[in-house]
């Protein structure tokens, strides 16, 4: 009953009566629609702050990729040390994937927790910039570690706000908009940071680590902007709690490491696909700028543009492809298509001199498609009470894989060059392909639930609900 009342208060767009507010004399008067937490006008304002909450984090995450040439030159680094900047981001999230939801639910609360993790993102980026300014690589690594503590947990908080304010049919659209804004942050970073570095260089009259430090410090302004969004969002959520008498949002994550021993073979194969696939995407983008300059003779501006196309395509494609997968089902087939297309993209980049825009556009579509089809499959093979553990473990080993492969990719590039690195990425995708083929046969032998059509899955869920009743 309480859940139904909360949903009515938050989602009833057609409700013609605004929540009353009382003046100093105690007289109730209607509240303006844009100020009323139960009205769509107010929730659109809240949604705006939700979308920008993670903008700074995603903008600054790929600062090293956008400034790869400058970081290598100004800090006098080899590629192996450069890729440690990505590894240090991933290390804290090997553990925080299990603890982030607990800290938000039980320790800080969603509002305070969001502000705290936003502060970690801000301080981490400032420390990262200071490390460049003072030519101290260890300080840059420390900054990325602190930045990583806040980055992933902030995404959990963002999703919790979305569920709390937009339960029901709107939540998938909200998730899509948040993902699009995140990709927009990555895209803007890829295409603007080189220009910012050039302007700072012209003002200072020279290149060097101080120029790089100032550039990264300017980038931290996006994190400060996201921190302001967290503060405003916390105020609006607290106000809605007071007006509508609703509870503070919870992440819904229940982590029990003892559940790991009960994971099925199908789930472990999903984990392998996840790790083997993503380690061929993010480390490649982190090293992509110099690759396009050296192999295809692109200018730095052209290289940054083609390197960002994966994020540019992902922004509008993720909601569309998510809708397509929801309507058709057949998740295994979609994942197989995404993996094969990604393998084809890497092979084109490795063994041909075709225009790389073709391969990178294919990579952008396949990356978006895999995310839409792979992650929901966890819910098909895991009981609801184990979902928190399953997703936490999946994110944990993904971050572990990204940390290790980032360092390995840097070492391979220093010693063997880009061709060998592309062959290595192709091998990772082949591992994902083998896992998806194995998952197809395991699923077939166990009834084929992962590859059901949307209609068949709806009938199965309806039948299961009837049996449980």
UniProtKB/TrEMBL annotation:
Q: Which residues form the Major facilitator superfamily (MFS) profile domain?
A: 43-446
- Chain segments carrying region Disordered: 1-26
- Which residues are listed as membrane-spanning? 44-66, 86-104, 116-138, 212-236, 265-285, 305-325, 332-351, 357-381, 393-413, 419-442
Keyword annotations for this protein, in alphabetical order, are: Lysosome, Membrane, Transmembrane, Transmembrane helix, Transport
Question: Where are stretches of biased composition, namely Basic and acidic residues?
Answer: 1-11
* Catalysed transformations (reactions): L-arginyl-L-alpha-amino acid(out) = L-arginyl-L-alpha-amino acid(in); L-lysyl-L-alanine(out) = L-lysyl-L-alanine(in); L-lysyl-L-lysine(out) = L-lysyl-L-lysine(in); L-alpha-aminoacyl-L-lysine(out) = L-alpha-aminoacyl-L-lysine(in)
Instruction: Return the PROSITE patterns for the record.
Output: MFS
User: Per the record, GO CC terms?
Assistant: lysosomal membrane
- Judging by the UniProt lineage, the source's domain of life is Eukaryota
| Gene Ontology terms, MF aspect | transmembrane transporter activity
Primary localisation category = membrane
Compartment(s): Lysosome membrane
Q: How does it sit in the membrane?
A: Multi-pass membrane protein
A Pfam family it matches: MFS_1
**What protein family does this chain belong to?**
Belongs to the major facilitator superfamily.
Q: What function does this protein fulfil?
A: Lysosomal dipeptide uniporter that selectively exports lysine, arginine or histidine-containing dipeptides with a net positive charge from the lysosome lumen into the cytosol. Could play a role in a specific type of protein O-glycosylation indirectly regulating macrophages migration and tissue invasion. Also essential for liver homeostasis.
How is the quaternary structure described? Homodimer. Interacts with lysosomal protein GLMP (via lumenal domain); the interaction starts while both proteins are still in the endoplasmic reticulum and is required for stabilization of MFSD1 in lysosomes but has no direct effect on its targeting to lysosomes or transporter activity.
**Protein name stated in the entry:** Lysosomal dipeptide transporter MFSD1
